[in-house]
Design goal:
Blueprint lengths: L2 H11 L36 H29 L20 H8 L25 E2 L9 H8 L3 E7 L5 E8 L5 E4 L9 E5 L5 E3 L1 E6 L4 E5 L9 E3 L8 E6 L9 E16 L2 E8 L11 E3 L4 E11 L6 E10 H14 L6 E2 L2 E5 L2 H7 L5 E6 L4 H5 L6 E5 L2 E2 L3 H9 L6 E8 L3 E8 L1 E2 H4 L1
Parallel strand pairs: 1-9, 9-14
Antiparallel strand pairs: 2-3, 2-5, 3-4, 4-8, 5-6, 7-8, 10-11, 10-13, 11-12, 12-15, 13-14, 14-15, 16-23, 17-18, 18-19, 19-20, 19-21, 21-22
Length: 444
């Protein structure tokens, strides 16, 4: 084990409290392991034990430090380096020489892409699918009942990049024999990933498949008899009560439950150069909740907590605005990943776009449309000459100013289809291009 990780373990748990020999880990693909990640230790009284009090203080300081990081850069941490495009500062358009410079700052980091996952691979094509169950007509639970029914179906996931860096996240047990759903960003750059169950058993995870476009992944552990979650087949509605269970800020707060409502439906968000349609909720979610369930009051999974907004001005997280991947998306992606290890047949243009604020459009005298902040290498859009700084005014003759409008046009065509783009280019040039849509699996 490298020195950085050993020092991290010593600082977090106290010297001598954590195993630091990599040789003690079980072989890949075998059963329970205990030394790959910092273990979660049950809480208990530390009264009368000064060394343990000091170690507890270190752990508390660590939690506070993590909290500061989340406040300072919540979206970066929470979504693995990619987040909802946002105004990164209160700067006015007048401060910039041209609109390209303004939008480069406005959509700062919007073009980031998912990191490579290097986990050992699990078998695909097993015939396993995600089962959806209708919502019961009666028998709703209170929050305590939801927690009692669902908490054992939520796992903690700790991914290691092999250089002393860790990503903490959550996961949902999909089947009794060890299929687990989580966010793809929880596994980014991971060379090993460990799943911790409700009873503190730990297993090495193998990758079934990951899809950065939807931020979903399926992993597999070598276990049987697990308490699988129940997934709801029916749509949620605005105002419906929901709860989340996960591991905010890492293993010390494992199994935390928060509650709220469905705030809105069909929110269009751009992530890793690809549009996502998400559920908005005011349930408190933070870094570490990624990949955990959003639950209805019958104890059914209705979504997967995925990301939250960051302030446009203070660069702090915004309370009460979080997002979850709908369960119908989870099913379609999970079934494809288990069958083939990838999601194919989904059309993509290969550009990262965002709406143009009215004040910027007025000041720079540019048309209302979608600003192109990045173009994916290898896409036909890049081949045909679409460049960052272009403004897509219309697609197939239809004006577009919201990501959802572009997504609706593209989703109606398969890979190999063609769209006609009307582009406004810096300098006042109007450019007309016919661009072939590609399979998103080839681009992302």
């Amino acid at each position: 084990m490298d020195e950085d990780r050993a020092r991290f373990l010593a600082e977090w748990y106290g010297a001598g409290e954590a195993e630091t020999s990599a040789e003690q880990a079980d072989p890949a693909g075998t059963g329970c392991i205990s030394s790959q990640i910092p273990p979660s230790r049950p809480g208990g009284s530390l009264a009368g034990d000064a060394p343990r009090k000091r170690r507890a203080a270190v752990r508390a300081a660590g939690i506070c430090f993590l909290a500061v990081l989340v406040i300072a850069a919540s979206a970066l941490l929470f979504s693995g380096g990619s987040y909802v495009p946002h105004v990164s500062s209160p700067d006015e358009p007048e401060q910039y020489a041209d609109y390209r410079e303004y939008f480069e700052h406005y959509y700062e980091n919007a073009a980031s892409s998912a990191g490579e996952i290097k986990l050992p691979e699990a078998e695909t094509g097993t015939g396993v699918t995600l089962t959806l169950t209708p919502r019961p007509e009666s028998g709703g639970l209170d929050l305590a009942g939801v927690y009692e029914r669902c908490s054992r179906s939520v796992v903690a996931i700790t991914s290691s990049a092999g250089d002393g860096r860790y990503i903490w996240g959550s996961g949902i047990i999909m089947t009794a024999d060890g299929y687990i759903l989580t966010n793809a960003h929880v596994l980014e750059n991971a060379v090993e990933s460990t799943v911790t169950l409700w009873d503190d058993r730990e297993y090495e995870a193998r990758l079934v498949g990951a899809d950065s476009a939807s931020d979903l992944a399926v992993i597999k552990i070598n276990a049987v008899g697990l308490p699988a979650a129940e997934f709801c087949a029916d749509a949620v509605s605005v105002g419906e009560a929901v709860a989340a269970i996960g591991n905010p800020l890492g293993p010390e707060l494992r199994g935390t439950m928060t509650d709220g409502i469905i705030s809105a439906l069909s929110r269009d968000i751009s992530y890793t150069n690809h549009p996502m349609t998400l559920i908005q909720t005011n349930v408190a979610i933070n870094e570490g909740n990624s990949g955990g369930p959003l639950l209805n009051m019958y104890g059914q999974v209705v979504g997967m907590t995925s990301m939250k907004l960051v302030s446009a001005y203070a660069r702090s997280s915004i309370d009460g605005i979080g997002f979850a991947i709908p369960v119908e998306t989870m099913k379609s992606v999970a079934d494809a990943l288990i069958a083939e290890g990838r999601v194919s047949g989904r059309a993509a243009l290969g550009v990262t776009v965002g709406p143009i604020p009215a004040d910027a459009a007025e000041y720079f005298d540019i048309p209302d449309g979608l600003y192109v902040s990045a173009v994916t290498p290898g896409s036909d859009a890049a081949e045909k000459g679409v460049v960052p700084g272009d403004i897509i005014v219309s697609v197939d003759g239809e004006h577009v100013s919201e990501i959802g409008e572009l997504s609706a046009i593209i989703s109606g065509k398969g890979p190999g289809g063609t769209v006609s783009l009307d582009i406004y280019r810096y300098g006042g040039e109007d450019v007309y291009l016919d661009v072939e849509l590609m399979d998103s699996a080839e681009l992302y």
